[in-house]
Amino acid sequence: MAKDKVKNEAVTESTEIDYAAKAKRNKPGSLPYIWRHIRQNPLAMGSLVIIIALFILSFLSPYIMKYSFSKISMRDQYALPNSEHLLGCDEVGRDILSRILYGAKYTMSIGFASTAISAAIGIVLGAVAGYFGGWVDGLIMRFLDIFQSFPGILLAILISTVLGPGFEKVILALGVSGAPGYARMMRASILTVRGSEYIEAAQSINCSTARIIRKHIIPNAISPLIIQIAQGIAAAGLMASALSFLGFGVQAPTPEWGSMLSSARNFIRDYPHMCIFPGIFIMITVLAYNLVGDAIRDALDPRLRD
Length: 306
Fold this sequence. Notes:
Elements: H1 2-26, H2 31-39, H3 42-64, H4 96-132, H5 134-148, H6 152-163, H7 167-193, H8 197-204, H9 209-221, H10 223-246, H11 257-264, H12 273-300, H13 302-305
């Protein structure tokens, strides 16, 4: 009897653990829930595979490509796509495919890093403004109004002009210029949860303000921001290419996609392949990010779940 009782208790405990794990996986907004939603969406899953493949190929390109991205060969100058150079060569005979794959790390890394900076600044400013309200909220919002009075690309160009061109400086310019949008989104989300009972309970037991913001407010208000972050990576990568194209971003001979477009624009009539292939990769990457962002939005938006 004692053995049967112990066995039944073990089975009951195991069942409770299974139910708890299943509930965690099915909890709307959890990472397993989002991942399952992406897997069920063929377009989003294919887009995620493309993004991961580009990242892997960008780091492996120096080892797997037949030609180096920086190797100059005047014999292959302006070469059209052929069996030796699948996407052709540029004005000094450099292999375009090697440059595109190697340059993917710059374009995609700028999108991730600048969005992370924008989100970090925006979360802090939005959390402080939304939680305290009053003159603190007014001061932060008026400060952000000044930033948002400039078009995003113009503000990024202004910051890039002050800092100078370069990979790290482009990330900083895009990160700072994109922060106001994240701050406003975070503030709006916090205003919806600031008066909740769990916030009042935390205040009643004398939790510090920093702990309340960090442990209770931000985790419960960040879901809309996750959607904006997922879709903002694509916009940041596209703007990075635009800055490089205009001469304010990553400079040649670094094979960033926008910089490649800028170098090839003078030859677009005679050798359009030099512009077409970097443009196609920019389009595919931005589309892939947007499709993954749409899938995350569908998973986190309760109206779409219903």
